[in-house]
Design a protein that fits this description.
single chain; 138 residues; alpha+beta; Flavocytochrome B2, Chain A, domain 1; 14% strand; Cyt_B5-like_heme/steroid_sf; iron; heme; Cyt_B5-like_heme/steroid-bd
């Protein structure tokens, strides 16, 4: 992973919002994706429209692959200076991340509960089979 050497303000990053000069903010990191616009599978408008804010929710929502995430590292320029982000946006980002973590935890719990439910049904079915359908050897 690249070393982050520079801090950029939200205003500075937001000024790069055209097809000729496009910077993205993802999870507090600043990327210059201008050279990638023509290659982006979703089109260049998607990236240009995501400028001026932390677009990590959009990035995650699409479900980018591991290789897409690795490719992003080649465009990494630095980090967003947290002091340049209005407090309201910082609180929203923190709340969103907590909500995403809660959703993952809930899905994991639901998955575990469903597994236990089906496992119990399987065990009961096997026991019932032995009780009600004894083997011919007996």
């Amino acid at each position: 992973m690249s070393k982050i050497t520079k801090l950029y303000t939200l205003e500075e990053a937001s000024n790069h919002n055209t097809k000729q000069d496009c910077w993205l903010i993802l999870d507090g990191k600043v990327y210059n994706v201008t050279k990638y616009l023509d290659d982006h599978p979703g089109g260049d408008d998607v990236l240009v429209n995501a400028t001026g804010r932390d677009a990590i929710e959009d990035f995650d929502f699409v479900g980018h692959s591991k290789s897409a995430r690795e490719l992003m590292e080649t465009y990494l320029m630095g980090e967003l200076d947290p002091s340049s982000v209005p407090q309201q946006q910082q609180e929203k980002a923190t709340t969103t991340r907590q909500h995403q973590t809660d959703q993952v935890t809930q899905k994991s719990t639901e998955s575990s509960s469903a597994f236990k439910y089906w496992l119990a049904i399987a065990v009961i079915s096997v026991i019932a089979g032995y009780l009600f359908f004894p083997s011919k050897d007996q």
